[in-house]
Amino acid sequence: GDSVTQMEGPVTLSEEAFLTxxxxxxxxxxxxxxxxxxxxxxxxxxxxxxxxxxxxxxxKGFEATYRKETTSFHLEKGSVQVSDSAVYFCxxxxxxxxxxxxxxxxxxxxxx
Amino acid sequence: EAQVTQNPRYxxxxxxxxxTVTCSQNMNHEYMSWYRQDPGLGLRQIYYSMNVEVTDKGxxxxxxxxxxxxxxxxPLILExxxxxxxxxxxxxxxGSNYGYTFGSGxxxxxx
Lengths: 112, 111
Description:
The complex is a heterodimer of chains A (112) and B (111). Chain A is mainly β. Chain A has strands at residues 3-6, 11-14, 19-21, 23-26, 32-38, 44-50, 56-59, 62-65, 75-77, 86-93, 100-102, 106-111. In chain A, strands 2, 5, 6, 10, 11 and 12 form a 6-stranded mixed beta sheet that branches. In chain A, strands 3-9-8-7 form a 4-stranded antiparallel beta sheet, with no helix packed on it. In chain A, strands 1-4 form a two-stranded antiparallel sheet. In chain A, 39% of the residues are buried. Chain B is an all-beta fold and 111 residues long. In chain B, strands 2, 4, 5, 6, 9, 10 and 11 form a 7-stranded mixed beta sheet that branches. In chain B, β9 and β10 form a beta hairpin. Classes of the chains: A mainly beta (112), B mainly beta (111). Chains A and B meet through β5, β6, β10 and β11 of A and β4, β5 and β10 of B.
C-alpha cells in the first residue's frame, strides 16, 4: 500500500536558519503530494501541493519539488522565523481517490 | 468564511455509551474524511466519502461508522466506545484540487 516517510524530529533551528524536512513516498500510480502545517491546538492547514512530477509547490517562503525519480518531496525554507514553529506533515493522495496517506509529522522549533 | 465545523471540541464519555461527532462543511466539497491523531502514530484515516451515499474504509475503521446523507455533513459514530478510541479526531473536506481543509478537532476521552 501507499506510505509516506518523513524525517524524524524534533528539529530545532535558530531564527534565519535554512530548513529542510525530508519526505519520501511509496505509491501506486501518480499521486498528488502535499505539505500540511499544524500549529498548537489547531487543525492541519494545507501549506503547499504538487500534482505531477517536477512541479514545485510554494507558499509563505516554503517550497517543495515533486521528484518522481527519487520519490521525494522535501520541504525547504531559506530563512525560518519563530512563527514557523509547528508540526509539518507530508501527505500523498492518488488522483480521484478519497484515500490519503500522511507521514508521522516533524516538529519544528525555531528559537530567537 | 469557508470552513469545516466539528462538534464538540472536547468530549469525555464512558465505555459503551454511543456517541456522534458531527462534521459540516460549507464549500460544496465532494470528498470528506475522518482522521485520528495519536502521539507517535501520526494521522490515520478512519473513513472517507467521495460523494453522497458513497463511503469507504480507511486504515483504521474498526469501531467506527459514518454516513453521508447530505453533501455538507459527515458524522462519525462510535456505537460502543472503548478506551483505545481515546484520541484527537479531525474531519476534513476537499474539492477537485485535492488539498484537504481540516476542522479544528475533537478531543475524545473514553473512560
